[in-house]
Automatic annotation (TrEMBL):
Catalysed reactions listed for this entry: S-ubiquitinyl-[E2 ubiquitin-conjugating enzyme]-L-cysteine + [acceptor protein]-L-lysine = [E2 ubiquitin-conjugating enzyme]-L-cysteine + N(6)-ubiquitinyl-[acceptor protein]-L-lysine
Biological source species: Mesocricetus auratus (Golden hamster)
COS domain span: 374-432
Lineage: Eukaryota, Metazoa, Chordata, Craniata, Vertebrata
Gene behind the chain: Trim9
Top-level EC class as recorded in UniProt: transferase
Protein name: E3 ubiquitin-protein ligase TRIM9
Domain B box-type: 163-212, 224-266
Length: 715
């Protein structure tokens, strides 16, 4: 019974209904509360003015909500007639039930009549505080609304069933215990409210006040009021109009208000509607039973969710801590490499400072000595040493040229941390075992006709199955290490084609792809086997070359427009394996000294190859050759080049050596040892030289072990 109490309380005053009336919207109000929320409307909206204008309207017309706004969920607590400037705006309040209501537009005049009999302001409007529908009252005022006698009876039975002490009905906040009841007013009062609202003087002095318990009994014993017609107050309801859905009296029928309507006996319709309500309650009862069982299930889920949440949070924290630990370890390793690079740069710069300091001291000493010699006045003695001094001065000047005054080390660090894959992985870090309503994408299909390899690069293409209905948000491409090892991700994104560079030469790779969306990942596609090129083929790279380099023959042939040496690199880099290539001298004029070898990607491009610490080279003229690295010349070897000569370069990264050949004969000893890292083929030349790169298929005539290209590691 306690759950029903909210149905028995007025939305305005929050107390049990007292003399409830039924609004056309089927909601109920206390008769006194209905009077309190009346609002006076403009004259043009009155029923009389509408009748005068000839518009056929009923006595209770709902206002056009576009013209009048009495309530809004988004307003600031004020209601007003939007279409009439003369209408006052009054702050809206909240009833004890939380329903927003409007106070009266003006205080009701003092009267001792009941709310139903008291006069109603002209052109009054009432707004239902529950559905907010508004209507204008006719001349009958509140008497035009039927009284809800059934609701009164339910409230009486409910109050009789409650054993708790009766409370005062007029206390605004916490109701106090009632001390008296007025039989005429039918209201329970506490002492303060009785003195304030029911003083023993005037007409109220004749009212009979009884104890609350006696008042409850008198309420129970009082005869049930018979419902009368709203249009004919002396007539009882005897029939029921099916079209209007309301009880009517015989006088309403005689006046012809329902002449064309279907009218049935009141008792028959009463039994029929009771039967319909009982049937509807059976279905609602089943739903209520299911709701109670569902609530039990939900309450048991609350505890389970809390336990699972604690366990899952602990697991998540442990996994994230493990990732943070791994990142800290990797951070320490990378910092160690940075410190190593830092020490290396400082060593190179300090060595150059020491070297230049000694050389500058020697040059300064020579200059001072020459100045003193010039001061001598002995011609014969001066001429005896002048030629030697002039040669020494020119030689010393030449030693300061060709990059001697260029720093051997840049201030920038060669290391560049690529953290984008890790950041992307962190952004994609999510729960992959979430049970979602949408399925995972279908398995992608590799398009074999579009997959290929070129040199040490592989291009792969894939697509979703034609009949797939689940969209993929992206794809993950995986390759193994070329030696049958574990797969690793090489691409994550939305594209359906990817080219992977920097693979190992003469190696077999396995590739596979899978799709993913918010739900999860699809199964892997079928594995595709890819074979990279056996021989390292490359062309010269215009993008990284000096601007004076001239390219031809699909970038296999190069020359230069300057008399100074300029550097050009090959497009392919090597970090593992054994690689051999040849360069043919197409043009050789005026005995220049071109250089051949390997270099880092950031080698200096405007000096001879080998002048800085980023290149390892052999430079050669028409008679002899030298090895050079970091401007250090070693191993002078007889034997030069002419037009048509062939220079061979053997880079053995397995043994970490670099060897040179001229016309298939090894030139000098092994040029460099302990070479490791990523190297690019490189040459330097001026305008007197033109050469072409080639890749011989047979190496049996070279006089050294058979070469087998092995992979270069992925950058």
């Amino acid at each position: 019974m306690e759950e029903m109490e909210e149905e028995l309380k007025c939305p305005v005053c929050g107390s049990f209904y007292r003399e409830p009336i039924i609004l056309p919207c089927s909601h109920n109000l206390c008769q006194a509360c209905a009077r309190n929320i009346l609002v006076q409307t403009p004259e043009s909206e009155s029923p009389q003015s509408r009748r005068a204008s000839g518009s056929g309207v009923s006595d209770y017309d709902y206002l056009d909500l576009d013209k009048m706004s009495l309530y809004s969920e988004a307003d600031s607590g004020y209601g007003s007639y939007g279409g009439f400037a003369s209408a006052p705006t009054t702050p809206c309040q909240k009833s004890p039930n939380g329903v927003r209501v409007f106070p009266p537009a003006m205080p009701p005049p003092p009267t001792h009549l009941s709310p139903a009999l008291a006069p109603v302001p002209r052109n009054s409007c009432i707004t239902c505080p529950q559905c907010h529908r508004s209507l204008i009252l006719d001349d009958r005022g509140l008497r035009g609304f039927p009284k809800n006698r059934v609701l009164e009876g339910v409230i009486d039975r409910y109050q009789q069933s409650k054993a708790a002490a009766l409370k005062c009905q007029l206390c605004e906040k916490a109701p106090k215990e009632a001390t008296v009841m007025c039989e005429q007013c039918d209201v329970f009062y506490c002492d303060p409210c009785r003195l304030r609202c029911h003083p023993p003087r005037g007409p109220l002095a004749k009212h009979r006040l009884v104890p609350p318990a006696q008042g409850r009994v008198s309420r129970r014993l009082s005869p049930r009021k018979v419902s009368t017609c709203t249009d004919h107050e002396l007539e009882n309801h005897s029939m029921y109009c099916v079209q209007c859905k309301m009880p009517v009296c015989y006088q309403c029928l005689e006046e012809g208000k329902h002449s064309s309507h279907e009218v049935k006996a009141l008792g028959a319709m009463w039994k029929l509607h009771k039967s319909q309500l009982s049937q509807a309650l059976n279905g609602l009862s089943d739903r209520a039973k299911e709701a109670k069982e569902f609530l039990v299930q939900l309450r048991s889920m609350v505890q389970q969710i809390q336990e699972n949440s604690v366990e899952f949070e602990a697991c998540l924290v442990a996994q994230c801590d493990a990732l943070i630990d791994a990142l800290n370890r990797r951070k320490a390793q990378l910092l160690a490499r940075v410190n190593k690079e830092h020490e290396h740069k400082l060593k190179v710069v300090r060595d150059q400072i020491s070297h230049c300091t000694v050389k500058l001291r020697q040059t300064t000493g020579l200059m001072e000595y020459c100045l003193e010699v010039i001061k001598e006045n002995d011609p014969s003695g001066f001429l005896q040493i002048s030629d030697a001094l002039i040669r020494r001065v020119h030689l010393t000047e030449d030693q300061w040229g060709k990059g001697t005054l260029t720093p051997r080390m840049t201030t920038d660090f060669d290391l560049s941390l690529d953290n984008s894959p890790l950041l992307q992985s962190i952004h994609q870090l999510d729960f992959v075992q979430v049970k979602a309503s949408s399925p995972v994408p279908a398995t992608p299909i590799l398009q074999l006709e579009e997959c290929c390899t070129h040199n040490n690069s592989a291009t792969l293409s894939w697509k979703q199955p034609p009949l797939s209905t689940v969209a993929a948000e992206g794809y993950i491409l995986e390759l193994d290490d070329g030696s049958g090892g574990q797969f690793r991700e090489v691409y994550v994104g939305k594209e359906t084609m990817c080219t992977v560079d920097g693979l190992h030469f003469n190696s077999t790779y396995n590739a596979r792809v899978k799709a993913f969306n918010k739900t999860g990942v699809s199964p892997y596609s079928k594995t595709l086997v890819l074979q990279t090129s056996e021989v390292a083929w490359f062309a010269f790279d215009p993008g990284s070359a000096h601007s004076d380099i001239i390219f031809s023959n699909d970038n296999l042939t190069v020359t230069c427009s300057s008399y100074d040496d300029r550097v050009v690199l090959g497009k392919t880099g090597f970090s593992k394996g054994v690689h051999y290539w040849e360069l043919t001298i197409d043009r050789y004029d005026n005995h220049p000294d071109p250089a051949f070898g390997v270099a880092r990607i950031d080698v200096m491009k405007d000096v001879m190859l080998g002048k800085d610490d980023k290149a390892w080279a052999m430079y050669v003229d028409n008679n002899r050759s030298w090895f050079m690295h970091n401007n250090s010349h070693t191993n002078r070897t007889e034997g030069g080049i002419t037009k048509g000569a062939t220079i061979g370069v053997l880079l053995d990264l397995n043994r970490k050596t670099l060897t040179f050949f001229i016309n298939n004969e090894q030139q000098g000893p092994i040029a460099f040892e302990n070479v490791e890292g990523l190297f690019f083929p490189a040459v330097s030349l001026n305008r007197n030289v033109q050469l072409t790169v080639s890749f011989p298929r047979s190496r049996s005539t070279l006089g050294f072990r058979s070469l087998t290209s092995t992979p270069a590691e992925l950058p």
